[in-house]
Input
Amino acid sequence: MRYELMLPHQLRQAIANNTPVVLPLGVLEYHGEHLGLGMDTLVVIRMLELVEKQRDIVILPPFYYGAASYAVEKPEGNGSVQVNGKALAPFAEELFYGLLKIGFRNIHGIIHHQSENFANGMPTDLSFRLGARQACFRFVEEQRGEGWWGKKDMAAYYAKDRGGDDPFNLVKIHPLMSREVMEGFPFDHAGIGETSLMMALCPEAVDMARHRENKGWYTETAAQASTELGTKGRDLILKRLLEILV
Output
């Protein structure tokens, strides 16, 4: 279900069912002359549409305005939109806090941009991860009062698996491609991996006739991209998303 198309009774049913609520999270960034500027976000949206065919999820309107950076190319004439992480974290906190106030308790953000080393993090995912944590602390303290963690009903906090009843699991941010997925599929920037994914998921944003005009080394392997390889990546990612969004 697309959140913006839901009627109130559908919203209430999703809350009652603890349906996963998912934010496609990304940037607008130069990806060579042959790929669309929204590549990082588009692949997340298209993957969630595939998940939706197999499982009930609520897909939030996508957020495209992350910290693209100007590391790849200068913005003039190339299209990268850079929003500083200092501005993103407060927005993320308010967004996630608002979703918690509505009643959702199974909230996820999925990001592809700069997520090859997700444990260390990059500005966009770190900002949204911080915002998620801040929103959880704020909401839980509002609901349970100050000193909530020190009360007796939290005594088993370290002993249990901290699954669905962990207040810090109300909002989680995930990379689109896990380390395991990257072991079976190339992670790159506008090279064979991303180009193949776009061929399989969003072919209308690929124009390989423009590949010869590319400026950087990072696009060289894109000439080897194929829909078949993209389909392999799609299937690996889909399997993982179905494990996460439960």
In short: The chain has seven helices and four strands. The radius of gyration is 19 Å. The first helix runs from residue 8 to 16.
